[in-house]
Amino acid sequence: xxLAAVGRPGTPEPWRDPDAVxxxxxVGVTKRFGSFVALDDVSLSIYxxxxxxxxxxxxxxxxxxxxxxxxxxxLDAGSIILDGQDMAGVAPYARPVNMMFQSYALxxxxxxxxxxxxxxxxxxxxxxxxxxxxxxxxxxxRMEGFGDRRPAQLSGGQKARVALARALAKRPKLLxxxxxxSALDKNLREATQFELVNIQERTGTTFIIVTHxxxxxxxxxxxxxxxxxxxxxxxxxxxxxxxxxxxRFTAEFLGTANIxxxxxxxxxxxxxxxxxxxxEFDIVTSSPAPKPVGSRVxxxxxxxxxxxARVESGTPHADNRLVGRVRDIAYFGDFFMVHVAxxxxxxxxxxxxxxxxxxxxxxxxxxxxxxxxxxxxxxxLPE
Amino acid sequence: xxxxxxxxxxxxxxxxALFFAAPFAIVFSIGFTESAEGIPPYAPLLRWREDGxxxxxxxxxxxxxxxxxxxxxxxxxxxxxxxxISAALCLLIGYPMALAIVRAPARxxxxxxxxxxxPFWTSFLLRVTAWIGLLQDRGWINSALLALGVVxxxxxxLYTDLAMYLGITYCYLPFMVLxxxxxxxxxxxxxxxxxxxxxxRPVRAFLSITLPLSLPGIIAGFLLVFIPAVGEFVIPELLGxxxxxxxxxxxxxxxxxxxxxxxxxxxxxxxxxALVVPIGLFQARAARA
Lengths: 383, 289
What we know:
The structure holds two protein chains of two kinds. Chain A is of the alpha+beta class. In chain B, 73% of the residues lie in helices and 2% in strands.
């Protein structure tokens, strides 16, 4: 699933190069609606050819940032510099930026071809050139033969393609995609995600995609930013953010995480030993703790990095081992999510891959189980 | 269930039959009778022979007269022209009003719409009569013009075409504003954003997106003003000049002054057909498109 975690073949990583010049620089951008701060001093650099995802819940400011980039909203502070040009005071119709809208916003009284040609006509492009570009865009989005249809005669997936074709027709420097696939059902959405990435790679256009769907962000993006209440909680490749979340918020927002609390006792073999403040056991990590000895920290543990096995009742906790009782098993088809209740009522979630059709579950409701994990599984959160 | 459905369907059907089809059939049949002294002032359509068998005495003279006498044709054409100009004036004033209400802050919208329909709360006759007070030689407008020294003698405003158009436009304006408002308020804002995003300046975006998409509202508003304005009687009578022979006044004269019910009926029937047939054809075409 996670293509980007391993890096795409041949994909350069300009953000690791200190000399690389960002294509888009967002500097200290602040946007307020009345007393509500939608964007709070956001700074971000995006490089040419990236597919950057802004990921966050509703009200996180991700759509506001996108609308600032499109020019629909004026900034209260900060600046947006695209390819060396300051966008301050540049009206939406004058920006080399196009947007694929969440609702697609296709013009209902125009054919597919007229929709795609609309932006080109505004540029005053000659008619034969418009026709050629429309044909090219229809081919790019595999919509050949649909040029004469009205938007009302298209399926959801086809509308998404037309919206993309229309937004790409002017060859924008930057393409903004606002929850582009949220109206599609799951299978179509996954197929379209891959196609979008494909088109992005072929055209080389810089994409910024806003989404609340973490899977979408993880599969598509070269890098992503997790947004929380108008700020960027973390920026990185999907792999970095998933494997090394920097806060409880990103750990829990991106995927599922069990968060344990403790106090760093000492370094140990390059890693750290953290005394749990909740249970009688220690968490041992293989990577060094980001804070000094004695600090209170949170440790994030992914459900798929933990093992689960039945044990005798009364088995004690131990290093990287917690004992509890199975309270719930949720079946997801490809895996089970086992909810284990600890003493004191807390629940930890452990996933079990559904490797073969089982006649007898390895664990069952009300079983006493031990959850164990390796030292490299836990991530000590810096915040 | 089925009975309930039947009832729901029957109600409008019965209503239309009683209050539209039946009166129309009566008016239509009177149009084929001969004028006569008495009450009612026309000869019966259905008559009896000596042997007691019934027969219809159809008289086509009324309809022939309408098409022969240029007086009636001119009245029809003049009415159509007055109605078209009034509807166009309503559109010119009403469209910007509707657009302004749609674009107004949400908390103002209900109040602004209220203001549009507020005149309906006063009697129609009263409002038309009020214009007399404004327009007459010693009315408010002339007094103001005289006081400001703009004119030396009162300007003839009342009993002119200007007064008539003013009155019709004023009275029918809400019928233009409301349907246009309805279509504009349903317009998806993101369409305008998309147009701007694709490089259309505001005027361009209005002409290529807002205007064509509000066409159903424009057509509805135009018909709502145009149709009643064709047969309008009260406003031209109270505000218009004496030579304003509109079909409404002609009808009234034939019916009440000349007591020629058959001719008045024929006038009404032809007016209805002249309006319904082209509008029906237009709507059938619009439905197919």
